[in-house]
Amino acid sequence: MICKAAIEAFRQIETPFYYYDMELLHATLRECSMQAAKHGFMVHYAIKANDDPRVVEAVRSHGFGVDCVSGGEVEIALEAGFEPSKIVFAGVGKTDAEITLALKAGIGCFNVESIPELEVINQIAGGLGVTAPVCIRVNPDIDAHTHKYITTGLAENKFGISAWAFEELVAALRAAHNVRLKGLHLHIGSQITIMEPFALECKRALEIVARFREAGFDITDLNLGGGLGVDYEAPVANPIPPFAEWFGTVAANLPVAPGQTVHFEPGRALVAQCGSLVSRVVFVKNGKDRNFVILDAGMNDLIRPALYGAHHAVENLTPHEGQCRYDVVGPICESSDTWGEDLQLPGTARGDLFAIHSAGAYGQVMAMRYNQRPFAKAYYSDEIIK
Ligand code: LLP
């Protein structure tokens, strides 16, 4: 919930902007870290969800590691002071320059997504005279029942190495003398709100571990990726995602052998709910059949509704008398620049402040300058509330 003092402070700030509730962020990080500790699980924050320096610093302060998907993210994580050994690096198209950077930094693990990548890492590591720690990202072929664009674990997706390539993989690993196999990496998708896919993921992981064992490899690290969903419908009622249920499901379905560590890579679950996109009403336009509330925040500031048809709760923070049905839209010249259609809202006037909720994950990081709009700034509750 956005408190009255924050709303008062918002009146002085140029809109649109991202607002981060630091108290909620810390509460979420504390809960995740406490639930993970119960099982001895290790959590790496998927920094792609939000790389704002204050958000990243909060994550670091709770002792998390980082999951990166580019050289740029590895650099940000290092600059933010994460221990290199707590950095894991995934991505289907790691360039030679990115691999070199990560090897020189001494990161904890490469999550390797193809046999050619394994060969290139081996070659570059050899040239540098180092050994590259790797997990093999396996495509588990599991349907996570989420949006098509954020499903990653199906055989048809580009991610990971599929089971049919196992023999070839084993041969490549045996030939890769500058690579040390630590374990497996799986990630089945994002915004997953039911636990069954995670239970199935554990089953797949166990099957694959058994195959590696038979081939003579010792598997010490099991990284199950991220994907825990958040409540976009009722963010105020459900601000903290069900970490206990997620980790509990894995603990119940994945017997961990002595010496093995289980890793996770949540992004959205840690940061989505602490962020809001705050906007002002530029105009209220009454049409023949519809009334439009036109905000100064657009799809360039938060692309999720336009790109995935995602729902974000919209709230008038400075409401007036009465109720009315409105289409709430942005200023961009695209019809998909819409925050919600036919919404029942309180009376709304020019100058009102709106919050678009759950914007902390995949909001600011995916911003762009379409229509020559400037990047929106970020503000933090502990800096603006007196
Ligand atoms: N690990 C890997 C290997 C990933 O690819 C991802 C997300 C994560 C972890 C973190 O997933 P999370 O816990 O956040 O679900 N832009 C989209 C989401 C793309 C997710 C990409 N990979 C959205 O706004 O819904």
Written account of the structure:
The chain is of the alpha/beta class and 386 residues long. It has 2 domains: 22-271, TIM Barrel, CATH 3.20.20; 273-384, Lyase, Ornithine Decarboxylase, Chain A, domain 1 (Beta Barrel), CATH 2.40.37. 31% of the residues lie in helices and 23% in strands. It has helices at 4-10, 22-39, 53-61, 71-79, 96-105, 115-128, 166-175, 196-214, 243-253, 268-271, 304-308, 381-384, and strands at residues 17-20, 42-46, 65-68, 87-89, 109-112, 132-137, 179-185, 221-223, 261-264, 275-286, 291-295, 314-316, 320-329, 338-347, 353-356, 377-380. Strands 1, 10, 11, 12, 13, 14, 15 and 16 form an 8-stranded mixed beta sheet that branches. It has an 8-stranded parallel β-barrel with strand order 2-3-4-5-6-7-8-9, surrounded by 4 helices. Strand 2, helix 3 and strand 3 (65-68) form a beta-alpha-beta unit. Helix 5 (96-105) packs across helix 6. The protein starts with a helix and ends with a helix. The mean pLDDT is 95. The structure holds ligand LLP.
